[in-house]
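Dear support,

We are seeing what looks like truncated structure output for some complexes. This example has two components. We would appreciate it if you could run it in full and send us the complete token output so we can diff it against ours.
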Amino acid sequence: MSHALLMELNEEIRRLYIAGSDLAAGDYRLKRLLPSFEQLGERAPVFKKLAEGVHGLIETGNSIDTDSARQLQIVNLLLQSVLHTQGKAAAEGETTPFISKPLALPTRLSYRRLSAVRTALTTRGGGRHEVILEAYREGLFRDLRLLPLAVEALNDPYVEIAEFAMTDILPSYGPEIVPHLLESFQPAGGKLEARKLTVISKSGGQDVIHVVYDAAVSGSDEIRTTAIRLLAGHQEYEQALLDFSRDKKKGIREAAYHALADSSWESAAERLYEASKGKDCDLVNSSLTRCQSELLTGWLTRDFSIILQSLEEIEGNKQKAEEIWTRVKRYLWSLHQKESPELEELYLNVLRQYKLYMYKLGWVFLANEAMNYMKQIDSEEGRQLMKAAVEMDLKHSAGTSSYAREIFIKAQPILSPGRVYEEYAKILMDRLQASAVSRSANYCKQLLDTIEDLVISRRYQAYNREWAYGKNDGYTYHVEMLPQEEIAANWDSRWLGHFIELDHMALVSAFARPGQPEAGSYLLGKLKNSPEFRNRFANLAVIGLVRAGIPEAQLHEALVRAMEDERNTECHEIEPYLFNQLCRLPAGYAERIRSALPKFKSNAEEQLEFILKNMTSSIHS
Amino acid sequence: MIEISETWIDSQAPNSAAIKNGHDLIKKGKFTTLHHSEDQQVLFGTCAGSGKTPYAPSVDFVLPDKPVMRCSCPSRQIPCKHVLGLLYAYAQGKPFSAAAVPDELAAKREKAEKREEKKAKDAADGVAVKPKKVNKSALKKKVTAQLEGLDVLEKLTHSLIRRGLGMLDTKELKVIQDHVKQMGSFYLNGAQIQLRKLHMILSAGGNPELTYTYAAEQFAIIHAFIKKGRAHLNAKLQDTELALDYESTIEEWLGHAWQLSELRDAGLVSPETELIQLSFLSYDDSSRQEFVDCGYWIQKDSGELHCTLQYRPYKAAKLMREEDSCFDVVHVPALYRYPGDMNRRVRYESFTTRPVEEQDIARIRQYAAHSYAEAIKKVKNQLKNPLGDPNPVMLLHVEQVVADEEGRLFISDSNGETLGLQDLLDDSTVNLLKYLPDDSLKDVSMLVMFDHQTQSGQLQSQPLSIMNKQEIIRLLY
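Here is the complete output from our reference environment:
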């Protein structure tokens, strides 16, 4: 009773703070409360004091003006103090013992270690993903206090973080996490709950599959599609999945097809086949590709060959051919990367009629798929047919822009090295006589680019910087060439001479081989002319010199000369291949390296220091 | 032989970046020499920096519990990364050879030694440390200025209250802001903080109803502060000695920063005590414009709960050491306590550590309050003082954890009395209870923080740590 009265007074006081204390004079609501306080004041002195305060507040209008504010403050202070002693702490209704579902996790990490991860998980902005990955790698998530945050991370707006929580962090807690996720799982929810369900199913296994099924039946659309996919392979839900695949909603059907494709039942193959015939033929296609059932492959191949045969009946009707092509594309897609004797026969047939499919109908996809299939398997007839097909292509494309590009790429692995050389070498020979702006120069450039793409790969890739002091993983520019044996086996040896003639250093490096002194001296000259480690040339030349097998001493001398060259400045990081070669320098070069060191900067400096460090340690040992 | 662990070194570092940088120096092989002195008291070495001459970090363990760390680098962080690197190298067992201490360092050591000697001599001779001369007239001036400041503050609050918060506009907020600045020149740091808080409440936006409730509470605090501050200052003016008040927190409210010597003179120091940290938190207090590192500790021999507070002003935060959780028993030769009620602030100048053992846990578990009724009475007694800490912390015995029909959690004592649990801080801890095994929820000691919520009329508490029979489970940090 008295607490309610105090709260009522608090409400009135608050009102006066908002409206201004000048309105307190003669306030009738305060007047109404006054008698109750006076009455209680007879027993408790604090109420008496409050009553006096309220009384004073009502009377303020009669005295000097600041009084109302002062009086209000006095009553408020007293009231706040009293209210603070009135707080209720105990439970009001019945209570029952709390039952926990324990997860044995320690709490031994300090604030400094936890707070960085906590900030990453609870705030938004860049750079968080790295922190979280690092924390996971260091095992910080084994601390109990990060567990609830890991669960919330499923809802992170940054998809990579949410997915990482789903695929790595949460499953790392094992099946014990499942009851806690189940507790908060809401089948009507969105992405967060769908991810939660995935973790539940992956960590809980057979014990929770009924939950997944319930979600598949009654959840939101997002949840249902996730749940249905998770039911794949569970025999007891075979019928359910078949039923889902006849659902009214497109998304549900698609998910069911997906799940059926991942299940090895005969009924699944039948249903997918059935769907491929009906109005869902487009929707089911990705699931057809996914499904590894031999049964299904057999049926699809059979239908595929019937369609190809039906071509003969339409007799050049363009519109009908177009319709058939649409269906053929679907089959190509769904049979992609599958193998069977029937399919082999089908593709052999395609190659037998290569001219028809490739040039008359222009079904390039089909022809290429047939070629690719044959490359995968070992068949003499296939090889012969491919050779014939490529010869046809060569004839057809001569003089067109694809001749030195796509067709070269196609022909190179199929025809013998000598045949390829004879076909294409004349382009390089013509170039020597032609002017730089002529058509044949352009042609030659195309061919050289194509060959370079085939034998040399250049890309940025992850790289372990063994020389680095601190962070030793990073990305760097890598140049890689096909292994020398591969080039010796698959390429004609006469190419090299042309590349030297045309002064194409990258290809000379790639094709250089022992016993070809011209290549060695050509590359030594190149390195001498452009010794700058900051440029890509030096690295390329060194790769070639090693491939040419020039004597070690000569190579080392050339390397150190290049390093000492006065033009060799401004290098920030030495490329990996070149660096590895420098690492092999004998310790005797230490002095010369040390004196060249001041010209190098940042990472390159650290790299050379690393080399020097290894040299001194090899001297000692 | 000097014995140091990596955790100890970590605890010396000003922040985690310094830890990393210290380690990196070793990895990079920047240390060119590593030595210890012949008597094994000093570690020193040389470390390559960006310039020509290497830096000379050194650590002097002549007083084992108060090592002196020096370095010739210009960094304002102490210890700097070079000293940390030197210590890590030692802890990792890198080879240190015996060598003579460099002259420069030897000279510094000698000076320090002489200082120590003189101090010891003075103490032995009974030369009383000269009491600091207080410039009384200056102090009087300051007190008068403070009184004047309180009048200004009162005038401002009264004018705000008379107009009413409903009429508040940006112009008036600006006036409050100006007064925040003025309070500084009246030597009223406490008033500055409270007024800034009021400004923050009023300008925060959001639910206006809530804003008014908080503002009314804040006005009550400011009023109490003016009232108590004025009485205190007037009394001080009457006193010929102008003595400090060692009983209540009013001096701190008025902006006084206690010095250890003052606390010692007032007898607020206990010798040879052991402390165990039960919880730690660090937060950004924007009304103070400071980061606050707060640790809650239990004194092992008396069971009193103390707190350590480190304020890191925004402007100096980079150069100051961030505190961190501490998992060891800390032995302090002299523990200084600040005036106050529950959870007094404490400080110490030097300490040594040892690992927590099971018997330590058994000992602190004995201090847990068994009757919630009495505990709550004590808490409310503090809460009714508007100038007291509104979030007292207590160690309670928990018979079991119970839940009501709506799933809200309560702790229950052996009489069946219950106490509601709720998250009060930004970091939630209540939701961690469901992951704990039974032996951490039954017959345990729990460190809780209280808070009174005027709107709902509830006294709530948040669990910070739990002590079962084996260990301290930190729910916060």
